Amino acid sequence: MAKLYFHYSTMNAGKSTILLQASYNYRERGMETYLLTAGVDTRAGAGTIGSRIGISAEADVFGLEDDLLVKIRDRLAKGHVACIFVDEAQFLTDDQVWQLARAVDDLKVPIMCYGLRVDFMGRLFPGSATLLALADEMREVRTICHCGKKATMVARMGADGSALKEGAQVQIGGNETYVSLCRRHWREAIGDLAPTEPEA
């Protein structure tokens, strides 16, 4: 039975690596996959899903105006697809998540979405909020803070090395821009918590 999956995490947790590995596993067994990524993120090149460890794959791109149900129907008309993978799913609109849900229900194709849960201000991305509401299954991809605890937040760093507290929700960047932190160290970074003494 086809399902809508949401794999979420903070920055640098390996979401794209997991996506590319899962797609490879299907293809290795002779099953076709369809990869989608946000057109706004061109860090690996336009129409490319890239991982920090150096693997990549070509993908179709989506923008805010695209109807993903139509895109998926068009792709399926060209041949069977065993699974659809969506990278940078936080950039989906509310309507687009519903389009993916309809594709799962009506076209009976599993869709695996990978993306950030919250932005640098600790707020849900619209696409992530709708995925949390609609996904049949959700899986957290874990990464760690510098203290060793699970990282659940992401800080956007300014040119001076301090964490920013405001700005546009979307700013494309990697390790030079974002740092994954546990909630306590995120609060400390944005000035919501006094620094703690290191434990002896």
From TrEMBL:
Its Enzyme Commission number(s) read 2.7.1.21
Sites binding Zn(2+) sit at 145, 147, 182, 185
Q: By its UniProt entry, which Gene3D superfamilies does this protein fall under?
A: 3.30.60.20, P-loop containing nucleotide triphosphate hydrolases
Q: Which UniProt keywords apply?
A: ATP-binding, Cytoplasm, DNA synthesis, Kinase, Metal-binding, Nucleotide-binding, Transferase, Zinc
Listed Pfam families: TK (PF00265)
Family statement: Belongs to the thymidine kinase family.
Record protein name field: Thymidine kinase
UniProt source species:
Aliiruegeria haliotis
* Organism classification: Bacteria, Pseudomonadati, Pseudomonadota, Alphaproteobacteria, Rhodobacterales
